[in-house]
Amino acid sequence: MHTITAARPITWRLPVVLLGISGLRLDRGTRYRPARLLLFTATAALYYLLTPVLTTPAVATAYATAVWLLYYGGLSLTLGGPGRTALIARFGEDRAYAVYEVALGLLFMNQSFAQAVVIYAYGDSLPAAIPSWAAYVIGAALMAAGTFAKVWAACTVGLDTYYCRDMFAGRPLKDADGLVVAGPYRYLRNPMYGAGNLHAYGWAVWSRSLEGLAFAAAFQLGIYLFYHFSERPFIERAYVRS
């Protein structure tokens, strides 16, 4: 996930970062790369096949709600509960992290697709008083700003931090310098959680989806709850007080 703690800032190649924040990591070795690619491709194909069903309003709402619960509930239970220690005890830290990051990558994919199907299912629900040109202009501006902020932040902290590797290990990474103050972190405390989520609002505005705006807010609230109850206590314990 996106955390304000990190190892020494690293600039990744843009395509690797874009795929990484979408759920597919190609920066971690080659042994499991074919399996990761196959899983990513198969999941995307399954989304495509199920789109006619998932984009009906009732199913889209249920699917997005389930993803919200699995994403933030599962993340909190794994990183802040017994899930992490159980995985490490079963597989060892390196293999356990590999399992965790694949599962988290799938949740990243589902989070994006869940918001997409809600927006599609509930398109054109904004008040008619808002002209289409305004929705397109505002939506495009928000999508551009949010995507730029998220990619910039991910390039600054690296994908290991994006996937909360330090929290999974329960300690700072080996080359950690503490809190990041470079890139967008010079201006914002949580650029991924704040500005980085503007793209979801922009997509909803572009599609004139009132329900899409509501789910974008719900997913942003979920990540801030995770930060408040799980991530910030870890940051203070591992980086601030150490």
UniProtKB/TrEMBL annotation:
Name the record gives this protein: Uncharacterized protein
Membrane topology classification: Multi-pass membrane protein
Transmembrane segments: 35-54, 60-81, 102-122, 134-159
Matching Pfam families: PEMT
N-terminal signal peptide: none
Keyword list, A-Z: Membrane, Transmembrane, Transmembrane helix
Gene3D superfamilies linked to this entry: 1.20.120.1630
Coiled-coil stretches noted in the UniProt entry, renumbered to this chain: none
Chief location category: membrane
Stored InterPro entries: Phopholipid_MeTrfase (IPR007318)
Compartment(s) where it occurs, according to its Swiss-Prot or TrEMBL record: Endomembrane system
